[in-house]
Fold this protein.
Amino acid sequence: MRVESDNLNYYLIGFCKIEDYELESFKLFEAGIVSLEELEAETDGDVAFKFYTSSKDERDRIAALFSHLNFECGEEEAKDWDLWWRERQTPVKVSDGLWVRPPWVNFSAPNAGCAVLALEAKTAFGTGEHSSTALAVQLMEKTDLKNKSVLDIGTGTGILSLFALKRGAKLAVQTEIDTMTIPCLVENFEQNGEKPPCAVLGFLDCFNESAKFNIIVCNMIRTEVLPLRTDIERLLAPGGEFILSGQLESEKHYILDWFCEAGFTVRNEATSEEWWAVISKLTNEVSHV
């Protein structure tokens, strides 16, 4: 734990035999140390470690109490760790047609027609860095979103909804079950010059029988999405397209079995690392009892 005092951080670097480290670290914790950072020792059989104290007096007290550990005492300028982190955030290329930038970073699209979204995840998932999000975006680029209605299941930051709107969707509706994501979602829509999101806090059964969407996008793992399959089939308009990401490639047979039973035709697939995503088209209407 790094503790700041008078714009300085006070630290100690100690040394002991590897076999003594567990006992010595226990004694240090008893003396008031909050955490230890293990370092690489220069001598075989030894271990080096570093920790910070709340003040110079506290540092000197610990050094005197454990003098046998041959501490090296030091101090360094205290950092604003939040500022340090923010300064190192850079725009992320999600796909050829989408970049995501932190709201505090100025960035222009490198080519015409490329969307740039300003997003901060906070308590929500989805800034384009995860392969499953990138795969969903890449497949969205392979379908016509202009003037389409889009349902974004488990929206998180709203990245997929925002991308759909930037590509001409006439309507994007989001669902989410985590109340903590809603303020982040609202902020991201405002940040990107969109009207407030059409977000539904709850499950898909809240939509009535007349609700139909041309496109449904979903970036969720298999165990989360399969319980929703009846509602997904119900909400997808005849001839509509379902874009699903967040699936392990080794488990895609579960999804393909569902598609075969429900009357979906696979139109396109994409993989990245161990992740798999798919666009399917609803070609048959299957009744469920």
